[in-house]
Design brief:
176 residues, 7 helices, 8% strand
């Protein structure tokens, strides 16, 4: 956290009312099958288009790359939960700082494990950037994410703490 940033934005989010959480959880339960069905339909459509246009992709790599980009633009947003969704653990542990501390440490630890893997020339490079979403640190605040991440070798990137905390693996500049 930089000196010029407002420290209140890095504080824990206020506890949401139980009634609101239950309502959002019910909406999430109703919405999840619809989202899964939309993702499945979009996937089948892209699969059908790619099978039909397989001949074009043999001759044109730009068409294939465009098809992949279009697929990413459509399928990626469908694979993420909207911000209003509430999961069962969030409903049960709203306001429990110890739960959110453990969840934050687990998320940062998972990214640290991925980023610290030695580079294998035959495999893609390990990730050097990550984003920890608000649902992982809601009860402890972005400052705790920064504290845990810096202790594990990450650096902060410009971020909107009300949505996510963006991190960069500082050891990546020392590799190679």
């Amino acid at each position: 956290m930089h000196v010029y940033e407002d420290p209140t934005t890095w504080a824990p989010e206020r506890v949401r009312p139980k009634g609101q959480l239950v309502f959002r959880f019910v909406l999430t339960v109703l919405y999840t099958p619809v989202q899964f069905l939309m993702w499945l339909v979009a996937f089948v459509i892209f699969l059908a288009i790619s099978l039909v246009t397989e001949i074009i992709t043999v001759f044109s790599t730009s068409y294939e790359q465009g098809l992949f980009k279009a697929g990413d633009r459509v399928l990626d947003p469908l694979s993420k939960w909207p911000a209003w969704c509430v999961s069962w653990p969030e409903l049960r542990h709203e306001g429990d700082a110890a739960y959110y501390r453990a969840r934050t440490e687990k998320a940062v630890g998972r990214w640290t494990k991925r980023a610290s893997v030695p580079r294998d020339p035959k495999k893609p490079r390990p990730p050097v950037e990550c984003a920890i979403p608000l649902r992982h640190y809601r009860g402890v605040g972005g400052a705790y994410v920064a504290q845990v991440a810096v202790a594990q070798g990450w650096e902060l990137r410009p971020t909107d703490v009300r949505k996510e905390v963006r991190l960069w693996w500082s050891a990546a500049s020392h590799i190679d």
